[in-house]
Amino acid sequence: MIAADNPDRRSAKLVTVAADGLIRHLPRAALEALFQPGDLVVANDAATLPASLAGTHMPSGQPIEIRLAGWLSIGDPLRFVAIAFGAGDHRTRTENRSPPPALSPGDRLALGPLEAVVERLAGHIRLIELRFLGSRAEMLAGLARHGRPIQYAHVPQPLALWDVWTTIAASPVAFEAPSAGFALDWRTLQAWRQRGIGFATLTHAAGISSTGDGVLDLELPFDEPYRIPAATAAAIAEARWNCKRIIAIGTTVVRALETAADHQGVRAGHGVAHGRIEHDTPLRVVDAILTGVHQPGESHFELLRAFADDGVLDHVSAALAERGYRAHEFGDSMLLERQSPRSPARRDRTLAGVY
Hints:
Elements: E1 13-17, E2 23-27, E3 40-44, E4 47-48, E5 52-57, E6 62-73, E7 79-85, E8 108-111, E9 114-124, E10 127-132, H1 136-146, E11 172-174, H2 186-194, E12 198-204, H3 214-217, E13 224-228, H4 230-241, E14 246-249, H5 251-259, E15 261-262, E16 265-266, E17 269-273, E18 288-291, H6 299-304, H7 310-322, E19 333-337, H8 344-347, E20 353-354
Parallel strand pairs: 1-19, 3-12, 3-14, 4-11, 14-18, 16-20
Antiparallel strand pairs: 1-2, 5-6, 5-8, 6-7, 7-10, 8-9, 9-10, 12-13, 13-17, 15-16, 18-19
């Protein structure tokens, strides 16, 4: 792990924001004791792909970097939405990166041992759809050999793949780390189990956090596929029936659960999370979110506005700045409760099903 940019996870800081707006500052290790027996914690177990690929735009011979950003197909051939940059690397701020070479449908890209074809320009100079030549197995093997984790200028040292995998990482489908999960370790999970606090997982293909263009960033997050196991949906139904809280570890979990929810319950199985969760989005499932420190204007921060009003979030942001909380994926954590929790009369009868 990059020591200078990833402090010990248990000694990192945690701010908690109660439903009434009360703020507390704690060590992150205090997570062990913050929840009640019967509460359910849901985390994203997606592992992170080495989704940054340096190479050459074959028609022009110019350098190009491709950052895979979304799944279009997971069969043969593998097809992705991707962000394209010109010369340079992660040490340059994303918004200052040069544009890619002039791209056209049919252009071939040499990306180390891999070759890809531009299928479509997606309405922005940086945004394309591409497919890899060869079999799915060949592509994944080439990705493992040549790809690097997507990273940004706030961590200048190159990251290794294990730097961006959480403790519970399983299926490699995410393009960037579901970084709220960095707050979890086996000691915390064991403490929760001993106290009767439930823990469940889902798999959500976390996307990129920046494209280098402010207008395009307004489209984030892109559509993201997810899978909710039947056991997780059942655990949510049981917690709701017993009037217990559902705590999401990260924005990706909120997106998956709220997308999969309707008046009958949380649907198990595969789905795709579309669009943003924002200040006026009604939350059906999640009572609290553990997340990182986000800045106003970011898509992650916009999601937090579904939990608390702008006055509360402004107050929290000021407190975090005053106390020097670290942002980004290796930073500190915030536990934010919904300001208007459901009444017990509704909570034990809504979202109690699983199907």
